[in-house]
Amino acid sequence: MPFDKRAWHAGQSSFENIKNCNDYSIGIELEGCEDIVYENIQYIKLSEIINSLLGSYKHLSLNRIVSHSDIAPGRKSDPGPLFDWKRLKTMIK
Q1: Given 16, 29, 31, 48, the catalytic residue
Q2: Which of 17, 52, 72, 80 is least surrounded, with the fewest CB atoms within 10 Å of its CB?
């Protein structure tokens, strides 16, 4: 789906006290489970996408990159405890 189109990735959600994240966010879905380690290629491709978005959307910043579990706690749990946020953040420029 194009990044400038609305997707239904978040459902009932809130970020920085603003509800309905589908209205103003870009969702990037990863294939995986909470109990399986994400593959190297997933981190590579995800960081490439995020780096591209950071160059295209000036209001986007590293501290605004969050997970489903951050915007819909109790309802969504992905990407889960095995997702290596530190690793991803070192790959983002």
Answers
A1: 29
A2: 17
